Amino acid sequence: MQACTALAMAGLSLAAALAGAAPAPATGTLGDEQYRPAIHYTPKQNWMNDPNGMVYYKGIYHLYYQHNPSGNTWGNMSWGHATSTDLVHWKEQPLAIPTDDQQDIFSGSVVVDKHNSSGFGTAEKPPMVAIFTSAYKDASPYRGLQAQSLAYSLDDGQTWTKYGANPVLNRNSANFRDPKVFWYDSPGGGGYWVMTAVEATEHKVLLYKSSNLKDWTPLSEFGPANATGGLWECPDLFPLAVDGDPSNIKWVMVVNINPGGVAGGSAGQYFVGKFDGTTFTSESTKASDALPAGTPLAGFNDGTYNGWTVKNEPGNGKNGPFGEVPAAGTLAGQNAVTGFAGSGLINSFNDGDWPLGSMNSPEFTVDSDYLNFLVGGGQHPRVSDKLDNTPPPGDLLFNGFEVPDGSTMADAGWTGTGDLAPAFQPATAGGDFFIGAKRLNTFESGGAPGDDRQGTMTSPSFLLSRNFMSMLVGGGHRSADSGQVLEVQLLVNGNVVRSLAGDDAGALNWKGWDVSEFAGEEAQLRIADQATGGWGHLTLDHVMLTDQDAVPRSDETTVNLVVDGQVVRTATGANSEVLDWASWNVAEFKGQRASIRVVDNNRFGWGHILADEFVASPRPATPRVQTYDWLDYGRDYYASVSFGNMPQDKRIMLGWMNNWDYANSIPTTPWRSAMSLPREVALTQTASGPQLTQKATQQVDGLGKGVSYAEKRARNIAPGTHALPSAAFGQVQRIDVTLAPGTASKAGITVLGNGSTSTVIGYDKATGELYVDRSNSGNTGFHPLFASVDSAPVTVDANGNVTLRIYVDRSSVEVFAQNGLQTITDQVFPAQGANQVALFAEGGTAQLKSLTVTPLNDSMFGTAEKPTKNRG
Question: Over the stretch 563-583, which tens digit does the pLDDT of each residue have?
Answer without folding.
Answer: 999 999 999 999 999 999 999
